[in-house]
Amino acid sequence: MEGNLENSCGKNSFWKPLSIYVGTAIGAGIFSIPYVMAKFGFLPSLAYMAGLTIVNLLINLFYGEVVLRTDGNRQMVGYAGKYLNKFGKRAGLVILVSSSYGALLVYALGFGRFLSAVLSPCLGGTPFSYSLFFFLAMGAIVFCGIKLVTKAELVMGFFLVATTLALLFLGWPSIRWENFLSFHPENFFLPYGVILFAIGAVVVIPLMKESMGEGDSRAFRKAIIVGSLVSFAVYLTFAFVIVGITGESTSPEGIVGLGNLLGKKFLIIGSIFGALTMTTSFLTHSLVLKDMYALDCKMSRGWSWLLTCAVPLAIFLLGLNDFIKMISLVGAILGGLRCILIILIWIQSRKKGDRQPEYSMGSHRIVVPVLLLVFALGIAYQIFYALKK
Questions:
Q1: Which of 288, 326, 378, 310 is nearest to 32 (CA)?
Q2: Which of the residues 19, 23, 120, 337 has the least number of beta carbons within 10 Å of its own beta carbon?
Q3: Domain count of the chain?
Q4: How far apart are CA 79 and CA 332, in angstroms?
């Protein structure tokens, strides 16, 4: 990673890592959650989201313990290589790279849709052209250095929470309570991949630890827990307003359909904010991926940048541009594999770790098999669903 993230962030025992987590977690997924909740049913989806949030929190804490048990700075591939041998490192490389590329592609697609909604009426252009512009602009920023990303996350995280509360206040009179009563059991699995993608910010946990500096590890666990819960609260509030107003007419991007009902001004503000959210999440995931190539794979700065930026652009140009489908595939399959890998790394780190961590999750002999089964079933069903389509 360029420079030392600690130098760019400064020491901060809580707010800086919290902003990194929230700013990364609240990205493309927040705008698609209302859509899948409307298609399945808001109330059963609420239970769905709460359950997956608990699961995600456990995975985050497992990975946080791994980070604290290990000397030096690494990314997931480095931890897999240390604790799961060469095969584990290769598996970690495939999983992290694939999930990161998928996430970057989703953010670019979301940016194109949001910016197109604002600019197309006056400047023309399609979501494809705006996404292409996004890839090129982000590539230039990543190449020049992205030390300002974590500072931007702090501002954007605060702005997102404030905007969500404003949305709740302004949209309350337009909410129709019957929109929360629909239920479509045939869409039971639809929310799984989308929600898992939305809440899955586990890859930034090593960056959270780096941002805290020496001697601040006691607040690390608190930042992970609070970040996970704040993200859940923002997701829930956003979905509550969108589904309450638009019901089963909720659009895949959420805010676009709401803007069509409440007016152009709201559409413009919401779309611009959505585009900014995609930007910060894209940059943070790019930082993780570039860091992995540089630290874990020992690649040069130029090759790290090229592999980080060029590959998702090539995938985009090949025509993979279905927003909801991409989120579901990345969340259910790649996100599930990533969580399984983290659990296996965590188990071995308890035997081979370098130091005593500031917190420990215990053995969880019952919870771990249940988590592995949940992720395995989710992967299997998503593959079956994709082949069926």
A1: 326
A2: 120
A3: 1
A4: 22
| CATH, residue 354 | 1.20.1740.10
Domain assignment of residue 52, yes or no: yes
Is position 94 within any domain? yes
By C-alpha distance, which of 327, 305, 342, 287 is closest to 102? Answer: 327
d(CA 58, CA 236): 19
What SS3 class is residue 366? coil
Helix (H) or strand (E) holding 337: helix 335-352
Q: What is the pLDDT of residue 258?
A: 63
CA–CA separation, 157 and 163 (whole Å)? 10
For residue 19, the enclosing domain spans 5-359
Axis-axis angle for helices 255-262, 85-123 (nearest 10): 20
Q: Is it the case that residue 56 has pLDDT exceeding 70?
A: yes
Q: Can you give the pLDDT at residue 8?
A: 39
In a domain, 49, yes or no: yes
Q: Report the amino acid identity of residue 273.
A: F
Question: Long-range contacts for 16-19 (Cβ within 8 Å, ≥24 apart)?
Answer: 16/150, 16/154, 16/211, 16/212, 17/208, 17/209, 17/211, 17/212, 17/219, 17/220, 17/223, 17/227, 18/157, 18/223, 18/226, 18/227, 18/230, 19/150, 19/153, 19/154, 19/157, 19/158
Residues 263, 267, 268, 274, Cα dihedral to 10°: 160
DSSP string, 165-178: HHHHHHHGGG--GG
In sequence order, which residues have a C-beta less than 8 Å from that of residue 366 and are 6 or more positions away?
A: none
Residue 61: which of 224, 229, 230 has the closest Cα?
224
Q: What is the average per-residue pLDDT within 381-387? A: 75
DSSP class of 190: H
SS3 content of the chain, % helix, strand, coil (to 5): 80, 0, 20
Q: Give the global pTM.
A: 0.81
